Amino acid sequence: MSANREVYITEVAMRDGSHAIAHQFTLEQVRSLAKALDEANVPYIEVSHGDGLGGSSLQYGRSLTDEMELIEGAVDVCKQAKIAVLLLPGIGTQAELKQAAKLGAKMVRIATHVKEADVSPQHFALAKELGLETVGFLMMSHMASAEELVKQAKLMESYGADTVYVVDSAGALLPFQVRERIRALKDQLQVHVGFHAHNNLSLAMANTLVAIEEGATRIDGSIRCLGAGAGNTQTEVLTAVLDRMNIETGIDIYKMMDIAEEIVAPILPQPQEITRDSLVMGYAGVYSSFLLHAKRASEKFNVDGRDILIELGKRKVVGGQEDMIVDVAAELASKKK
Asked: Does residue 242 register a pLDDT over 70?
């Protein structure tokens, strides 16, 4: 197993995948998965509530286990992998970031809506004070042009981001759109460029390969596709594909296959696939974590979940506005009467 890496993969199943299991990770599951990923030489492993630090709430879904226990447990079993956490300003607080760093987290990914990078300078400043590696995570990147994306990314770079990610939160980007966005960031930024995909239009792998082709070197994946919506780029598949392309990730492919089969598959309540709901999220361009919320609202108000998601897309609702899902469902139900 080579220690050289041309592409650095961050495994996000224990953060993004938290959405898919309604934030019900146990400490034992996280310790087992983190240990196995560490042994497979995955360089970064993200652990937190699906909506980031502080996300456990009625609004976003209660966690079964305190995320700080999960972070501490993951740190405890990893010998080489760095534990990353996600922080959405307005959901997570500085106190939670300090606690995560104290427990051993080494990277923070500070996530904002693609047009709201200016809410994050104090969070980058604190992360630097804490000695953390910093990532700017521009969510819903399909909602901004390449020019706007560069403007927002340069703000994050100026705040202290070591890497800036194009985040396809809705799985809505098409390959040519990924290409123009990554190319624009590579042309304009001095820091690393990353890409985070969702598979709602079955384009996560293709889009990821386009991003790498354009120079992205920080890439997200979720093993067994354990992520929100239809999941992310499937990590074990990505490592195998990159190996076939002679692009070095440093990750043990056989071990990743075994982890997916023996540890992650039993966690999944059902196989990750492109359902009509996850497909419509990509089609409508809505935040992937809206899926379970939309399903519940669909059942409660007896309206088609696709209609809810399409309407949310028309209204350009973003992460943090989950309360709008119920409002939209209620409005649609009222119109049916």
From this structure: yes
CB neighbour burial string for 207-223, b if at least 16 within 10 angstroms, e if fewer: bbbbbbebebbbbbbbb
- Model confidence, pTM: 0.91
Asked if 259 contacts 33 with a C-beta cutoff of 8 angstroms, the reply is: yes
| Pick from 272, 205, 215: nearest CA to 242 | 205
Catalytic residue among 19, 23, 49, 142: 19
For 321, the 3-state DSSP assignment is coil
Q: For residues 132 and 99, what is the distance between their CA atoms, to the nearest angstrom?
A: 12
Question: pLDDT digit string (tens) for 182-216?
Answer: 999 999 999 999 999 999 999 999 999 999 999 99
Q: How far apart are CA 256 and CA 251, in angstroms?
A: 8
> Can you say whether the dihedral through the CA atoms of 183, 189, 194, 199 is positive or negative?
negative
- 19 an active-site residue? yes
Q: 114 vs 146, 218, 265, CA distance in Å?
A: 11, 18, 33
Residue 335: how many other CB atoms lie within 10 Å: 9
* Strand partners of residue 112: 138
Residue with tokens 């082709």: 213
Mean pLDDT of 92-121: 96
Based on the number of CB atoms within 10 Å of its own CB, is 188 exposed (0-12), middle (13-18) or buried (19 or more)?
middle
Lowest mean pLDDT, pick from 58-62, 106-110, 149-153, 220-224: 58-62
Strands (E), 161-263: 163-167, 192-196, 218-221
DSSP for 118-176 reads GG-HHHHHHHHHTT-EEEEEEESGGGS-HHHHHHHHHHHHHHT-SEEEEE-TTS---HH
